[in-house]
Amino acid sequence: MTQEDTQAAAEIGIVMSGSIADRINRAVHAHNLAARLAVGAGYLLLDIRAELAHEGVRRCSRSWHGFDESAPLMLR
Description:
The chain is an all-alpha fold. The protein has helices at about 5-10, 20-50, 55-60, 70-75.
């Protein structure tokens, strides 16, 4: 790890201190949480896709902040 890596981790709230076991536990927890969030996002998008017609997705996606370009792709 470089000093820049350590600083970037600290800036997003990642605690880099502790024993190896503590850091492994935090890494596993973060990995599992990320996986659950990704799966959850997928289920939400599938539900939205089922509810909207294709053209409705395009129209609605224009108003989704941060998803202007990716929302139609995610809902394919």
